[in-house]
Amino acid sequence: MSGWVSVGEWLILGYFIILHFVYIGLNFVAYASITRSRLRRFGALTAVDPAFMPPVTLIVPAYNEEGGIVASVKSILQLTYPTFEVVVVNDGSTDGTLDRLHEAFALAEYGEAYRDRVPTAPVRRFMISRTYPAVRVVDKENGGKADAVNAAVNVARYPLFCTIDADSVLQRDSIQRVVQPFLDDGSVIASGGTIRVINESVIREGFLEQLAMPSKMLVRFQVVEYLRAFLFGRLGWSAFNGLLVLSGAFGMFRKETVIAAGGFRTDTLGEDMEMVVRLHRIMREAKRKYRVAYIPDPIVFTEAPENLRTLGRQRIRWQRGLGESLRMNRGLAFRGFPGWVSYPFNLLFEMYGSFVEVLGYLITAVAFATGTISLSAFFAFLLVSFGLGLAFSASAVVLEELSFHVYPRRSDLLALMGAAVLENFGYRQANAWWRLIGVIRHVRGAEASWGVMTRRGIASSGDAYTRSGESPTGVHT
Amino acid sequence: MVGPRILVIEDEPDISGMLQFYLESEGFEVELIITGAEAMDRLATDPPALVILDYMLPHHNGLTILRQLRETAAWVKTPVIMLTAKSSEHDQVAGFDAGADDYVVKPFQLDSLVARVQRLLKGA
Amino acid sequence: MFDLSGESVIVRISIVIGLGALAAASVFLLVAFALRGRLVRQTERRAAIEAVWLPVMLQSMRQEFPTTPTLRRRERGAVLALWNRMTAAIEGEAVERLCVFADRAGLITAARALSKEGSGEELVVAATFLGRNRDAAGVPVLLDLAQKEPIVVRAEAARALVRIEPEAGVRSVVPMIARWEDCHSAVAVAILRDAPSEVVSEVVAGHALAAQDPGAQARLVDVLAIIKGRAGHAAARTLLDRQPPPEVASRCLAVLREHRAPEDAILVRPYLKHEMPFVRVQAVAALARLQGSGDVWRIAGCLGDRDWWVRNRAARAVVTSPAIARSLVELLASVHPDRYARGALVQVLGEIGAS
């Protein structure tokens, strides 16, 4: 028994040491790049002539969205950007989504010379707005979100595109910011920004008016978690072009690259995540120069789950999405920085690390209960896990203060810190647990569908698309 | 003695500050407003003699305000000058379609803006 | 406290790490608060500075020269930024007076000093300021700034140089732009916007013709398409004659498209058959704008192109051309022997809102 415990102890210790070394490294890199990005932000928006901002296609996939689709398209039309078009895809909705669009935008059917450069479920018709010529609607049979986005990619006129969830709130200059990396570096194939939690904030006409610190503790935990994941997780990885997970809620992609890669996969829970990992793999395999860019600017705001059930489901889905993305792109392993560092790290720590984590909690608890380890040892372990978790959260708060300080009041800062302390008691454990369930389902699901060929046009299950396909994985302590 | 009241709907404090200073020293009464919603409130409670409206407002497109203004009988005749960045001619056309009486493109000459205000108020 | 002598190494290490991490966390928290405190103080300080300087600047615009406050060293950045913001949206006499004020209040001297020793953001502020003031004595420091990193600082310094001495500025800045690989065309145009377009056109055209690197050449020709001038037009014609690399050719075609000279058609026509689709697209677009008689039918010949975009552009040109009656286009859309050509025409007719 005690031999087992000690093996377990060493395993867990080793796991934590490596994990935290990586985090500390990411942290240092994040500090370095946040100061650089500040200056860039300061000058970038004034120093560019609109005549050359690349035109972009904004894709709005809609499945049974009759309630919000018109408002959401109208707020998209208010974005400030020189040239953009909006392609709404009605993915076989069974409600009045299409009727609402008809009423609001005076749609007229036209005969698109359609190229299915990415195969999708059958398209029924193409419509263009007579009042807003930049708005087009693709009406197609149901095929799921990824399939809907693919259909829009097929009709997109512009070189860059970005998918916008109907429920995400943007800044007026969001497009400009997320396009900036494409201007700075010609080899950029995808870019994304920071997602922030918007619960309880004041939104008017689809835009954020006043960001509020959410009152629910569960949501505050997520605020801290997002800070960690984005400000030092992603910033750190992107410095080495090793970012495997981009913000799906508002990621800008180079269209031709995505088409060449075959479009979004319809058989995964995290199609945006999978796309980024696949782009890494394809570019590495082809030995092409490329960059997946990340800007720390807060450009998308999204509603975080407010109860445990929804949150749990979301986390399980993210975990499965991550697992699928990694499994579908094994070829990335051991190619360049993403292959040698990001891929194994994501696989061992973000993905299967949840085993070690839950095991760690269990072993410690069992060993303590059976008297195998002393009280002081028990507290020592708690101290380490608590201390490190707090240190990284606090560090993320510092990064936030260095860069964006989006929460205006000093008391908000206190609230953030309070959440950073409290999340150690229950929230982090729950997260580890959900991630473990996600891993188990992923492994089971993979066995069940082993050998089943990629099917096209699988009907999406249930109601509107599962939202927030976005995962802030990257830092989960 | 206070002259006609002008409502300035502009989110950049530097610009609105300059406008206020300039117009006030020409004898106008000036009220500064930042958001579209606020603007609609003020228009309803205390209609001004003239409106200077920024095209790019936070959370509210200047054109939307202009359309609302023109759709309300009481304000149909209120002169409106639109302020806009120099980016596109298309915007300018849209502004006139929606019923702006005049159009000033940033960067603009303060003296000429004041002259336009005076001309519009004389015409009204 | 604890007697750790009997504990395993792991436990002792854990305690050390745990306490260390807690200590680090506390330091971070303190730092976060300190940063927030600094931010609040900065905001207050800036507000206080503006409360003093804004009214004075406003008055100076009305020619009632007020007594100028003394400029303290640490206020420089904030005051210059305020001045920059005020002059951003206006032009004309008011700006002239603000420039006079800037000189009297010692802002120009301050900006020159700041552009030697400031932080990144201050460098940008100082460069903008010197440019708007057309401060000829600021040229040497701006030339230094134009060597610095990152591109934001260089670009702002370059823009200021162009503002101060349009001709000489353009001559010194354009070679830099040709060298700067990280200077996107959008930034290049923003730098050169304030100079007279004929000057920009002439200088940029000269460098475009002489450029060896196709990337730099393409960037320069990009500028010629936006800042229009005779020299740029001539350069694009010369380059097209030389069979340039495709990325340069497509941009030269864009320049011709902007100039709408019917006699250019003869240069454009051969490019309808270029091997790269993005060159053919530009050729169709250019030819459609030039509107030479008979060229509509040449464009119609591209309706069956193997590239979707070429067909689309050709269809757009055919549908919108005044030379072909709408009824004829509609007929063509139903009887054209090539189904791709029919598709392209039907689409454009539908998009534009046929009949």
Tally of contiguous helical segments of chain A = 14
Q: Largest sheet of chain B, order of strands side by side?
A: 2-1-3-6-7
Portion in strands of chain A? 5-15%
Tally the helices of chain B.
5
Task: List the chains of the largest interface with their residue counts.
Answer: A-C, 59 and 62 residues
**Structure classification of chain B:** alpha/beta
Tell me the total number of β-strands of chain A: 12
Q: What is the CATH C level class of chain B, in words?
A: Alpha Beta
Question: Mean pLDDT of chain B, as a whole number?
Answer: 80
H-E order of chain B: EHEHEEEHEHEEH
Low confidence ranges of chain B:
none
Distance between the termini of chain B: 20 Å
> What is the element string of chain A, with H for helices and E for strands?
HEHEHEEEHEEHEEEHEHHEHHHHHH
In helices, the fraction of residues of chain B equals 40-55%
Q: In CATH terms, what is the fold-level topology of chain B?
A: Rossmann fold
Describe this structure in words.
The complex is a heterotrimer of chains A (477), B (124) and C (355). By secondary structure, chain A is an alpha/beta fold. Chain A has helices at residues 2-44, 69-77, 97-105, 145-155, 174-184, 217-239, 255-260, 271-285, 308-328, 336-351, 353-369, 375-403, 410-422, 427-448; strands at residues 56-62, 84-91, 107-110, 123-129, 135-140, 160-163, 169-170, 188-197, 202-204, 207-210, 251-254, 291-302. In chain A, helix 1 (2-44) packs parallel to helix 12 (375-403) and helix 8 (271-285) runs parallel beside helix 9. In chain B, the strands form 2 sheets. A 5-stranded parallel sheet of chain B has the order 2-1-3-6-7, sandwiched between helices. A two-stranded antiparallel ribbon of chain B has the order 4-5. Chain B has 5 helices and 8 strands, in the order E-H-E-H-E-E-E-H-E-H-E-E-H. In chain B, 46% of the residues lie in helices and 26% in strands. The two termini of chain B are 20 Å apart. Chain B is of the alpha/beta class and 124 residues long. The radius of gyration of chain C is 30 Å and the shape is extended. Chain C is mostly helical and 355 residues long. Classes of the chains: A alpha/beta (477), B alpha/beta (124), C mainly alpha (355). Chains in contact: A-B, A-C, B-C. Chains A and C meet through helix 1, strand 3, helix 12 and helix 13 of A and helix 1, helix 5, helix 7, helix 9 and helix 17 of C. Strand 8 of chain B pairs parallel with strand 1 (90-91) of chain C, so a sheet runs across the interface.
